[in-house]
Write a structure and sequence with these properties.
Layout: H1 2-11, H2 31-55, E1 60-65, H3 74-81, E2 85-90, H4 102-114, E3 117-120, H5 123-132, E4 138-141, E5 161-164, H6 171-183, E6 192-195, H7 201-208, E7 215-219, H8 223-232, E8 235-237, H9 247-254, E9 259-260, H10 282-295, H11 297-314, H12 317-331
Parallel strand pairs: 1-2, 2-3, 3-4, 5-6, 5-8, 6-7, 8-9
Helix pairs in contact: 1-12, 2-3, 6-7, 6-10
Length: about 325
């Protein structure tokens, strides 16, 4: 997504400079590590202030500020230069102000509080941002987007079903488990291709073994091969257990694939209007939706066409560029 944001800003005519490669992440909650990183950041900020003053920077934009990786540079540099400070995807987690990440959580909170504008990707993300926003701060919805200007060639919706997801323990494996349980409730005659790989591949293959040749595990596909898989599929099935939002949904809908997923926070922010079973419906809800789309060609094509229209309206680079430019202007970034 970071590369896409840079691309959208350039599309909007904004001159972008990568100011620093400092990595502030502490994944272990080690206070000593956090102290060292903050010391390094202070020296880096001093350098950046000199650089920014000489270059005439007009604003500072930070992507992804949160308690494990706070923005330790932007607030101080922007304040010293007297320029607007803007964030994209910032998390306010006040419950982390106590505990092993307390110092970093405070830095993340202070950074979020000092921003003139914060872009968020999902409605769930917006809740805490709005709750704790200082007076005058702009909280703006930037729809997750594909780094492209137009829709690709649409699928004929006549091939196998498609699932796309990393194979690892936890939520990803839970999604595969739901898919397997849903497939058990279908009558024979369907086919499913799975694009993905990872340490839990043996478990995924065991889940799919009862279905024999009806399921093909394709492994990791490069960009062209994955696009070909989308363009040949009948639909995408991916339950989306605890997904933030999932780029796979954007990619699939762009070629006009109807999506079978659960109605979950984050996921619902990128899906076209339609029918999606709630998590409480489990595999049975997913199976019912699969039966409906596989048995009804018109319903499948109608849902796919609406999916493509949804992507064109909300989730392509030109739309993101307009949103970003509007937000920068609201924050006071000069043209």
């Amino acid at each position: 997504m970071a590369r896409g944001i840079l691309s959208a800003l350039e599309y909007a005519g904004v001159k972008v400079e990568l100011a620093s490669r400092l990595r502030s992440r502490d994944g272990a909650g080690d206070a000593a590590v956090q102290t060292r990183i903050m010391e390094t950041a202070r020296a880096e900020a001093t350098r950046l202030i000199k650089t920014g003053r000489a270059a005439g920077w007009r604003g500072w934009l930070t992507y992804h500020n949160y308690y494990k990786a706070p923005d330790l540079l932007g607030p101080g540099v922007a304040r010293a230069l007297g320029i607007p400070y803007v964030q994209i995807e910032s998390t306010r987690a006040r419950k982390r102000l106590d505990g092993p990440w307390a110092a970093f959580a405070r830095c993340a909170e202070d950074a979020a509080h000092s921003a003139q504008a914060i872009f968020h990707f999902t409605r769930h993300d917006a809740e805490a941002l709005l709750r704790y926003a200082p007076l005058g701060q702009h909280i703006l919805h930037l729809h997750p987007f594909l780094d492209q200007d137009d829709l690709p060639r649409p699928s004929a919706l006549s091939g196998p079903m498609l699932a796309v997801g990393m194979m690892r323990q936890g939520d990803k494996l839970a999604s595969y488990g739901l898919i397997a349980a849903a497939l058990q409730q279908l009558q024979p005659g369907w086919r499913l291709d799975i694009a993905g790989d990872g340490p839990a591949r043996p478990q995924v293959e065991r889940l799919m073994a009862p279905f024999g040749d009806a399921v093909r595990v394709l492994g990791t596909l490069d960009g062209m091969a994955l696009q070909a898989a989308y363009s040949e599929a009948a639909l995408l099935i991916w339950p989306g257990v605890n997904e933030a939002f999932g780029m796979v949904y954007l990619e699939a809908q762009a070629v006009g694939l109807p999506v079978v997923a659960q109605d979950r926070p984050g996921v619902r922010d990128v899906l076209a209007p339609g029918t999606y079973p709630g998590p409480e419906a489990g595999a049975t809800g997913l199976a019912a939706r699969l039966r409906h789309l596989l048995s009804n060609t018109k319903a499948r094509h109608d849902a796919g066409a609406e999916a493509a229209r949804h992507i064109a309206r909300h989730h392509l680079r030109p739309v993101a560029a307009r949103t970003l430019l509007d937000g920068l202007h609201r924050a006071g970034v000069a043209s």
